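Write out the bound-state structure for 3NM.
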Amino acid sequence: MGSKTFDFSLYAITGENYHPGRELKHVMEQALRGGADIVQLRAKDAPKREVLEQARMLRELTAQYQVPLVINDHLDIALAVSADGVHLGQEDLPLAEARAILGPDKIIGISTHNIAQALEAQAGGADYIGVGPVYPTGTKPGRQAVTTAYVREAAERITIPFVAIGGITLDNVDAVLEAGAKRICAVSAIVGSSDPAEACRAFKHRLREYEALSSPDSASKRIRVNGRDEWTHAGTVQELVGQYGLQGQRIVVELNGVILSKDAWGDTPVSEGAQLELVHFVGGG
Ligand SMILES: Cc1ncc(COP(=O)(O)OP(=O)(O)O)c(N)n1
Ligand SMILES: Cc1nc(C(=O)O)sc1CCOP(=O)(O)O
Ligand SMILES: [Mg+2]
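---
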């Protein structure tokens, strides 16, 4: 992925401690199949050489799914594997220094825990900020939760993309979306799930529902997808496929009972009342 045009709603972060006995590649591929639309490699305990190998593997995997890869903490590894960017916390290399090293085209995300830090990161040219930890989490034990009050404040005052993070699960995500988050991030609720693909699909479903609810404008269309009523802003079938996190995957699209060739997706409008079947083939070969 060469350019910085990126947007996302579901951000998946690695966390090897959460899936003993299951390979990192397998777990993250499941997350991508389920619709994660940005991936971060976060390996706090591994030796640097191992982090580099994991980064190489994830670079290849995320490229297959046309999803950006961000490296936590390590700018050198991000550069070595041509990752799309880095994520830095308040104790890490400052944004200005990171930008000077990485240049304007790489994504830089900054963790923030209060609105002053968020405004500073925004003014300093961050591409997105993390807002958290919204809830207490075993992934960062001992960190005080900022609660949904900070999510609400970020939604009111921050104009760059922000992603809510920390203790977010399928049981509490509605409150986070209700507070105004349009992007959410999870470690344990995705990679610690016995079915990361299904966890991602469920998160994406909630994100889509809130997106449609929060912007009931004239572009919102009622459609039926795989037997369920949904709202969408997608103009074309291609956009709809992206909205479902299925870009780059092996799928067949049936629109109003007719199978649509992939070449036609970009030119075929999604109209009010359209009935779609998105048939997703799982497995290799
Ligand atoms: C998307 C996102 N938000 C916040 C963090 C936390 O970064 P940081 O504060 O530097 O803590 P560590 O992850 O390095 O322990 C993140 N990684 N990603
Ligand atoms: C890595 C991280 N950063 C946070 C922050 O608030 O900056 S919260 C967090 C942990 C996220 O993991 P889980 O989804 O398992 O709670
Ligand atoms: Mg860090």
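---
Residues 25 and 58 are 7 Å apart (CA to CA).
Residues 111, 130, 132-133, 137, 139-140, 165-168, 186-189 surround 3NM (ligand 2) (CB under 6 Å).
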